[in-house]
Amino acid sequence: MGRAVRLAACALNQWALDFEGNAGRILKSIEIAKGKGARYRLGPELEICGYGCSDHYYESDTLLHSFQVLAKLLESPVTQDIICDVGMPVMHKNVRYNCRVIFLNKKILLIRPKISLANAGNYRELRWFTPWSKARHVEEYFLPRIIQEVTGQDTVPFGDAVLATKDTCLGTEICEELWAPNSPHIEMGLDGVEIFTNSSGSHHVLRKAHTRVDLVNSATAKNGGIYILSNQKGCDGDRLYYDGCAMISMNGETIAQGSQFSLDDVEVLVATLDLEDVRSYRAEISSRNLAASKVNPYPRIKVNFALSCSDDVAVPVCMPIQWRHHSPEEEICLGPACWLWDYLRRSKQAGFLLPLSGGIDSSATACIVYSMCHQVCLAVKNGNAEVLADTRKIVHDETYVPEDPREFCKRIFTTCYMASENSSQDTCNRAKLLAEQIGSYHINLNIDVAVKAIVGIFSMVTGRTPCFSVYGGSSRENLALQNVQARVRMVLSYLFAQLTLWTRGMPGGLLVLGSANVDESLRGYLTKYDCSSADINPIGGISKTDLKNFIQYCIENFQLTALRSIMAAPPTAELEPLVDGQVSQTDEADMGMTYAELSIYGKLRKIAKAGPYSMFCKLINLWKEICTPREVASKVKHFFRMYSVNRHKMTTLTPSYHAENYSPDDNRFDLRPFLYNTSWSWQFRCIDKQVNVLGLVYGFMCRALSMG
C-alpha cells in the first residue's frame, strides 16, 4: 500500500495587486513542485491578490481579478495531476472571507474560509474579513460564471471540512489559526487528519523565527502528524518584510527548512514522508487515542487521488534536521537588505541616496545597502535570472553583470556628508573612509551658506537675530537654530537625490534613505522634517543596542575597518557649536536618558502595556540595585513627558522596516493620540504617593534595623 507522500511548501515574493506577477509566480512554484515529484502544493496566504491589499479588499475589482487568476490556474496544464492549494478572498452570501481554494484537475474540491483572524499589531484582518464561525459545517458555494465555464461545476463545498484522499486525510489551517489557543489542528488530529497545512502571511521581527518553528513542531509533538507551512516572502508594498521560512515537520521534528532571507522570488520546499511513521507515533499515545474516540467528526471531502504511489517501499524518505537560526545581527544584515532590494526594483528607481553623518545610525544604514549589494551579486552568481534582469533595469544597461559589491554600490548608492560650522573633522573623515570601503559615490558639501540665508531672512523680517545658548541665546533660539540646520539637510537630500545622476550623465533618480532608530523615534529625539524624513528607513524599527552589535558584525564579516572609530565615538547630532574644535553635544545628554534605558521604556510601554504608574512599579524592582524609588520616578516621568510632547512626530515618521514589537509607528502598529496632556497629573500623582509610601516603609525598616 502507499505510504510515502511527497509534499511541497512554497515561499513566494508576492506583491499586493500584482495579479500578473502573482499568477506567474504561483504557476512557476507549481511547475517546480511537480518537477520534484510532489503530489500536493501549498502556497502562502492570499497569494493570488497579495496579502497586503488592505482597503483594496473592499473593492469588487480585487475579488473579480482574483477569480480571473484562479480561472487561469485551473486551465493551465501545469496544475494537472497535483492538488493545488491557493489563497484568495471570496465573498459568500455577501460576506467576505479569507480563503483557501483547493483544486485538482480543473475541479475545485473545497473552499476553506479562515476561522481565526489576525487582528493585533500590524494585522487588521477583521477590518476586511469575517471569520467563519460554523465549526465542522459546510455549505454550498455558487461559483461565478468565469469558474463554472472551466470546471463544469455549479457549486462547491464551502466551510470547515477536511480532504480524504485514497491514502490519507488533510486538514487546513490559515496563519493565525496556528497561533490560537484552540488551534484547529488539535481536533483535526484527533479526528484522524494526518497532514496539516498552514498558509501564512507572517512578517519578520527580530528573534521571532524560533517562535514560529516551535509552534509548528509542537503542533505534531503531542498529537503526531505532518505539518506543512508556506509563507509570503519579501516586501509586498508596505513596512513589513515577510520572511519565508517555509517548513515541513513531522511528529514534533523539523524535516525541511526553507530560507528566511533570499532574493529568490519563488522557493519550493519538497519532502518525502512516511505516513506509517505518523500512525505508529500516534498508536502508543493512549491519552490521544482516548480523546480521539470521543471527538466530533469533521465533514470529509472524498478525493479520488493519492498522494503516494502503490509501490513505494523502496522510496527514500526525509530525515529530521536541526533548524538553523540566524543571529539578530545576521537578521539585521539580511532582512532590511532584502526589503530594500524589493523596494528599489519595484519602485523602478536607480538607487539610493543617504545623508552619511559618520555616526552609528547612518553608518548602519550604509552597511545594510552594502549588504544588499552583496546579496545581489551572490544571487546573480548563483544563476538568479530575475535578479540579473532587475539589476540591468536599475542601472539601465542590458549587458551589465554585477560581480563586485563595491562596484555595484558605486552605481546605485550615493552618500553625502553635509558639513556645517558645527561639524567636526572627525565625523567628516569617518564618513569619507566608510564610503571608500563600501564603494559608494560620495559627496562632501557645506550647508552654512543655506543656513545663514534662511536665518538672514528671519532677521531681515523681524529685526532679531537668534543665537546659540553658548553665545547667550535662549533655549528657544538654540533649538530653532539646530532645527534649521537639520531641515536644510533634508531639502538638500531630495535635491541631490533627484539630480545627482543627471550630473553624472546617468538616467533616473534616487530614493532618499532615513536613518533614525526606533529608540530615538520613541523619545522624539529628532527634528520634524529633517533627515529622518525620507522615502524609506531600513533601521527605523531597530534599537540602538542592536545597531551597535550589527556594526561589530560588519567589522568582522565585511572587514569594514572604518566602523571601529564610528563605534568608539559618542553619538552626537553636531548641531551646536564646537568647543575648542571638539564636539560638546552628545545624544544621551540631550535626551536625558541612555539608549539602554530607552529600549527598556519602549518594551514596557508597548509590549508590557505599561502606563506611567505600571512602568514605575515594574522598574523599582528591575532597577532596585541601581536606583532609589524617587530616582526611578524621576526617570519615568521624564520619559513620559518627552514621549508625549514629541508623539506628534510619529504622524510624519518615514515608513520604516518593521523589526521590533515596541515600534512607535502610528500608521497601524502603535495606535495612540498625538496630542496629550503632557503633565500626566493624575498618573504622576499616583507615582508620588507610592514613592512616599515606599519612603516611609524604607525609613521604618532602617529604624527597626538600628534598634535591633
UniProtKB/TrEMBL annotation:
Q: Which GO terms describe its molecular function?
A: ATP binding; glutaminase activity; NAD+ synthase (glutamine-hydrolyzing) activity
Q: Which GO terms describe its cellular component?
A: cytosol
- GO biological process annotation, one example: 'de novo' NAD+ biosynthetic process from L-tryptophan
- Membrane-spanning parts: none
Q: Which residues form the CN hydrolase domain?
A: 5-275
Keywords (A to Z) from UniProt: ATP-binding, Ligase, NAD, Nucleotide-binding
Q: Which Pfam family is one of this chain's hits?
A: CN_hydrolase
Report the EC code(s) recorded for this entry. 6.3.5.1
Q: In which pathway does it act?
A: Cofactor biosynthesis; NAD(+) biosynthesis; NAD(+) from deamido-NAD(+) (L-Gln route): step 1/1
Subunit and partners: Homohexamer.
Homology family: In the C-terminal section; belongs to the NAD synthetase family.
The protein here is known as Glutamine-dependent NAD(+) synthetase
Q: What is the lineage of its organism?
A: Eukaryota, Metazoa, Chordata, Craniata, Vertebrata
